[in-house]
Structure formats: structure tokens, C-alpha cells
Design a protein that fits this description.
Layout lengths: L13 H14 L9 H5 L3 H40 L16 H26 L1 H6 L15 H14 L5 H21 L12 H16 L7 H8 L3 H8 L2 H12 L10 H9 L4 H11 L7
Amino acid sequence: MVAMFFTSGDVLNRALACVISLGIEEGNSCGGNDRSPMEKEVLTLERLLKREGKYAVTELNKLEDSIQEQWIRKKHENLRIKHTIGDKSRDFVSPPKVSLDGCRKDMNASIGRICEFTGTKIIFWDLREPFIYNLYKPSVLESRLEHLMESFDLVLNELCDIILEPLRDRIVTGLLQASIDGLVRVLLDGGPSRIFLPADAKLLEDDLEVLKEFFISGGDGLPRGTVENLVARARPIIHLISLETRVLIDDLREVAQGGRSRYGVDSKTLLRVLCHRSDSEASHFLKKQFKIPKTAA
């Protein structure tokens, strides 16, 4: 279900990425397999969260108590009937405690998936134009993440109007997780029109701090530890972007020969960072070693 919001393509092939990028710009579409906006809007937040969330949080306990009460009432009625006809063979026995813990567990898992889906839908569909397609275009300096915070604020306000308070942190955590997924996608699979230079790393770090503080919201949002753990995924990538091209090439060669990266990443990540460089050294290396043509950016 979540996968329908993601586009496919070989991120290491700049030529193919260029074709995909042109297709998006001309057709304003992720691809031929995408569902229409109307079809996706059927999966509304109200239907996904309000119904199941309300039932799981407020109604399940009521149902559990109701079953228990009705069971006791029925036993009392049966006991009175027996006494009326003179049958005193058995006294009243307290019923076992009714438990719907299995149902709670399944509904809790379902709500977790809905929260994940909701965050992904918001970032990769509702905010796809400003975030996935256009963030850091034509450069990091000209298109900062902080410019999207107003859109994030509107989204969170809408969510808070829909969801129950006990589910707030879970749904907001799903949105933060999807935001980091989107940022990583932009940095590593951004296509030929995105170029990241070592000098951009400081700006990217600043953007990550803006995102982090937005979700912490001065102590009114998510716990700081939760936010720190989630944004930590993007930090190694930003660190790689801060490195000179020669350093990245040397590390990639070491990993390709069976060694370990000095920066704790795999060869695909190093290669993706190099694919977003525009200098002649990176272009020559990629063309010679991997037959990847020069970026069209």
C-alpha cells in the first residue's frame, strides 16, 4: 500500500534519471502506474484514523466491559429461574474476566501501519511538488527546507483536528519518519537536476536542525530523544556530501576491493553521492568506472 507513492528507476543511471525527470516536468506525473488523485483521496485521513483510532482507544474498553456485564446479568437471570423452580443444585459462580487483548494487539499494529501510511502519503503525495520534486532545485542555497515549514505546519494542524490525543505522537512520528525518508531520497536519488557540493553540507545541517526543532516544537511536540534518533539517519549522508570528491572516490575504491568504508557506508551510498557531483573529477571517474554519462544538470 505504501509503495504506490514511490517512483521507480535506476538512480545510478543519470541518463535514465534525466528521462524520468523530463517526464515529471512535462507530464506532472510520477509514472504510468500511478493512481489518479481522486482514487487516492478515497483513502482519507478521517476514514483511516478517526474510525479505527476512536474505536481502538475509546470503544474497545466499553465493549469489553459490556460483554462482562451482560455475562453476569445472564448468569443472575439463570440462577433466579433455577431458584424459582426449586433447583438449588448450583450456586452463582463468578465469570472469568473477559479480555480482548488479542484484538487490542491487532488493532494497535493496524494503527501503526496507518500512521506509517499517512506520513508517507503526506510527504510523497500531498507535498510531492515542493518536497520530492523541487527541494534543493536549482541549488541548495536557492531552495531551502525551511521554506516548506509553513506547509508542514498546515498539515499538522489538519492532523490535530482529526486524530485523538492518544494517537497524536504516533501519527506525528510517522510524519517525521516519512520526512526523513523524503530527505534521504532527495539527497541520494535526486536525479540529474540536483547537485550537492561540499559547501552545501553546512546548509543541509542547518535544514536538518530546522526540521528537528519543528517536530520538537519547544517541548510541546515529540520527545527530543525520539526526534534525534530519527533524524540521525540523514547525518551520515550529509557528512559524505561535505567530503571532497577525491576522498569519496578513494573510499569507494577501497570498498569495491573488499575493504571497509572509513565512513561506515556501503558502495551504493558512496556512488549515489558521487552521482550528484558536477566536477570533472567525479564525471571522469563515473564515466570510466561505471559507464555513467555526465549529469545533465
